[in-house]
Design goal:
The protein has six helices and no strands.
Length: 246
């Protein structure tokens, strides 16, 4: 192994900066894991309204965050030991991570633009199965959605009558009156307790916000990885040149 002082001063600075960078690299992995796992858990609560595309982006961030811990090993060991092969391996793996994060970031912003249409189609399709014995899961998810987001129907409350062919509204479309245990009925004429906003608007805005968060995390951290790639390439060249001059 070549002694540390054999490297030029500039290369030694890059070496230590790369070692420090790997600490931040691990932190970015933790951030990606946290964001991906949190949003995946949120999306998993409403699988009937979301396309598989929505689950693929947070799943990709979880995978990337997990791989980062493995990659950081090559970066730290390669920098400390001035091992050319390990540093080159680190640079190549960083390049792969960079591409994956760019893909996740771009996908997040693309899903933001397509979210309304995808969610609307899913909502309108599932409304027709509300309240049937064969689709108790859909009934529960719709009730949870309307209570949690204070909404009713896809675009408006009357969707339950016009689209789902129901004679009234689900009880989850209305808030219980003060002192009342549960709702006794809920109609489109209810003035006080009815959730007048459609679920596409409130839930769609919620999903769009998370899509932007996914896109921002992917693109922002990809920039950090680009800096790490530059460090590793510079250090690998310095190590190779140093070996050739010994």
């Amino acid at each position: 192994m070549v002694a540390d002082m054999s490297l030029p001063m500039g290369s030694r600075c890059i070496k230590y900066l790369m070692f420090i960078f790997n600490l931040f690299f691990v932190i970015t992995g933790i951030i990606l894991l946290s964001i991906g796992a949190t949003i995946h858990a949120v999306y998993s609560g409403y699988p009937h309204f979301l396309d598989n595309k929505f689950l693929s982006v947070p799943s990709l961030l979880i995978a990337v965050g997990s791989i980062i811990f493995f990659i950081a090993f090559f970066g730290c060991c390669g920098a400390v030991r001035e091992n050319y092969c390990m540093v080159v391996t680190f640079a190549l793996l960083m390049g792969l991570i960079f591409i994956l994060e760019l893909a996740a970031g771009i996908s997040g912003y693309v899903l933001r633009n397509d979210a309304a249409d995808l969610i609307q189609d899913k909502m309108l399709a599932t409304m027709k199965n509300y309240g049937t014995n064969e689709s108790q899961e859909i009934t529960r998810v719709w009730d949870d959605l309307q209570r949690n987001f204070q909404c009713c129907g896809t675009i408006q409350p009357s969707d339950w009558i016009n689209t789902a062919n129901m004679t009234g509204l689900p009880l989850s479309c209305c808030d219980p009156l003060p002192g009342e245990i549960g709702n006794k009925s809920c109609t489109v004429d209810e003035k006080v307790t009815l959730h007048k906003k459609g679920c596409l608007e409130s839930f769609g805005s919620f999903i769009k916000g998370h899509a932007v968060e996914l896109g921002g995390a992917g693109l922002g951290i990809a920039f950090i990885q680009a800096v790490g790639i530059w460090f590793s390439i510079y250090l690998a060249r310095a190590i190779k040149m140093n070996y050739e001059t010994v």
